[in-house]
Amino acid sequence: MTDIQAAIAAAASGMRAQTTRMRIAAENVANANSTADGPNGEPFRRRIPLLESTTLTSGAQGVAVKGATFDMSAFRSEYNPSHPAAGPDGYVRLPNVDTLVEMMDMRDASRAYEANLNMIDAARGMTNRALDLLRKA
Q1: What one-character-per-residue DSSP string does 7-68 give?
Q2: Are 34 and 43 in contact (CB under 8 A)?
Q3: Mean pLDDT to the nearest integer, 72-99
Q4: For residue 81, is it within any domain?
Q5: 16-22-25-30 Cα dihedral, nearest 10 degrees
Q6: Does residue 43 lie in a domain region?
Q7: Average pLDDT over all residues of the chain
């Protein structure tokens, strides 16, 4: 595998990782106000993607998605005694999702995805220029 192919493989692994980050952040935002079915239930718990540096088959360093884990931070609570999920004290437990943090994570993942895409475009451009030079020789 050439150096350019290895660079493309590394950028592609980064794009897959960023796609996973965006999907998980979108799921977190979508469930930011999901409560439990009843007073003893647990609301939606924020998920965090697990990414790991790995050596690709090309020998280049890339990133692998190892799954997702739950954020074990405390749930938010809101006083609303008329809510079906309210406890005896009148508080409803809400997900531990901060939509601002999730939106920033989505923006960061989107920019990283775009940077990897630009890397692939640059590698393809270099390959095409090299082929053009070979044709003229």
Answers
A1: HHHHHHHHHHHHHHHHHHHHHHHHTTTPPPSSTTS-----EEEEEEEEE-TTS-EEEEEEEE
A2: yes
A3: 95
A4: no
A5: -120
A6: no
A7: 94
The answer to whether residue 115 sits within a structural domain is yes
Cβ atoms 14, 22 nearer than 8 A: no
pTM of the complete model: 0.87
CB atoms within 10 A of CB 83: 14
Q: From residue 33, how far is each of 55, 62, 88, 97, 119 by CA, in Å?
A: 39, 35, 20, 8, 38
Per the structure, the count of domains in the chain is 1
Q: Is residue 90 in some structural domain?
A: no
For the stretch 26-80, pLDDT in tens is: 999 999 999 988 888 899 999 999 999 999 988 889 999 999 999 999 999 999 9
- Domain of residue 112 covers 3-37+48-73+100-136
